[in-house]
């Protein structure tokens, strides 16, 4: 599997979070980790994010490329990839289990999958934080039997399928990850055992009930692509 993976991380002013993710990548037992390109798609950070990322070049093949909104940054990184698989990670996650990446790639190869994701847990979250992420995990599980649902926190794609689906819709202003993942054939989608850890900052900025309401509206409008192109106020407040 060496040389089979490129990792893309969209980022903007993530100096407090990105090093945790990169450290967790360093701890992965995937044999090709040191040679895997890690593309940080930076959207004009002013807090030292770029310098923090490049500080890992002695342990990871980190490169910084121009980014933008998450969909723009992810596509920009994917355009530079030549590997069979592309893994999209959010800058505020970390992989606490050193076997996760290796197992996810093994599953992709063995099952000839188009997309794999994993569960999400909140680092030092409240009861309501944990409850909402548990709900997200449940919806991912349900989606594995109906219509695939994965978030940009961890999306491992077959690169050719990713582009066949059109990549991330750069016009989408909300739930661009769901908009893409629901186009994957459910037979080619799996949830890998394990989890990534993230923060509760989305809930802190938007509020738990508003996040629930936005999630509900996303499900209701699943067939209405125009809905995702409308500004739902997500990035302006939670970005």
Sheet bearing the most strands, described? Answer: 7 strands, mixed
Major β-sheet strand ordering: 3-2-1-4-6-5-7
| CATH hierarchy class name | Alpha Beta
Find the CATH superfamily. Answer: Spore Coat Polysaccharide Biosynthesis Protein SpsA, Chain A
Low-confidence stretches: 235-239
CATH topology: Spore Coat Polysaccharide Biosynthesis Protein SpsA, Chain A
Q: How big is the Rg?
A: 16 Å
Could you spell the SSE succession in H and E letters?
Answer: EHEHEHEHEHEHHEHHHH
Second-tier CATH architecture: Alpha-Beta Complex
Number of strands: 7
- Indicate how many domains the architecture comprises: 1
End-to-end separation: 34 Å
Hey, roughly how much beta strand do the residues contain? Answer: 15-25%
Instruction: Write down the overall mean pLDDT.
Output: 88
General form: globular
Q: Helix amount, in percent?
A: 25-40%
Structural class: alpha/beta
Number of helices: 11
Care to describe what's here?
Helices cover 40% and strands 20% of the residues. It is α/β, with parallel strands linked by helices and 239 residues long. The protein has a single domain, classed as Spore Coat Polysaccharide Biosynthesis Protein SpsA, Chain A (Alpha-Beta Complex), CATH 3.90.550.10. Strands 3-2-1-4-6-5-7 form a seven-stranded mixed sheet, sandwiched between helices. Helix 1 links the parallel strand 1 (5-11) and strand 2 (37-42). The longest helix is centred in the middle third of the chain and has 17 residues, at 127-143. The chain is globular. The model is unreliable at 235-239 (pLDDT under 50). It comes from Tunturiibacter lichenicola. It is found in: Cell membrane. One of its GO terms (cellular component) is plasma membrane. Keywords: Cell membrane, Glycosyltransferase, Membrane, Transferase.
């Amino acid at each position: 599997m060496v040389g089979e993976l490129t990792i893309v991380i969209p980022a903007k002013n993530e100096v407090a979070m990105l090093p945790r993710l990169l450290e967790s990548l360093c701890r992965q037992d995937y044999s090709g980790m040191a040679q895997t390109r890690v593309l940080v798609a930076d959207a004009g950070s002013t807090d030292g994010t770029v310098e923090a990322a490049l500080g890992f070049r002695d342990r990871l093949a980190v490169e910084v490329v121009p980014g933008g909104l998450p969909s723009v940054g992810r596509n920009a990184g994917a355009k530079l990839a030549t590997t069979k698989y592309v893994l999209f990670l959010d800058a505020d996650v970390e992989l606490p289990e050193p076997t996760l990446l290796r197992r996810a790639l093994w599953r992709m190869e063995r099952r000839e999958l188009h997309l794999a994701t994993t569960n999400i847990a909140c680092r030092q979250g409240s009861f309501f934080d944990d409850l909402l992420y548990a709900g997200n995990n449940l919806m991912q599980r349900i989606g594995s039997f109906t219509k695939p649902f994965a978030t940009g926190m961890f999306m491992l794609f077959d690169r050719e399928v990713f582009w066949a689906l059109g990549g991330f819709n750069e016009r989408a202003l909300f739930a661009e990850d769901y908009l893409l993942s629901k186009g994957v054939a459910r037979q080619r989608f799996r949830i890998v055992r394990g989890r990534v850890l993230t923060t509760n900052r989305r809930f802190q900025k938007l509020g738990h009930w508003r996040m629930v309401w936005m999630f509900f509206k996303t499900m209701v409008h699943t067939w209405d692509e125009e809905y995702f192109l409308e500004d739902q106020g997500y990035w302006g407040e939670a970005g």
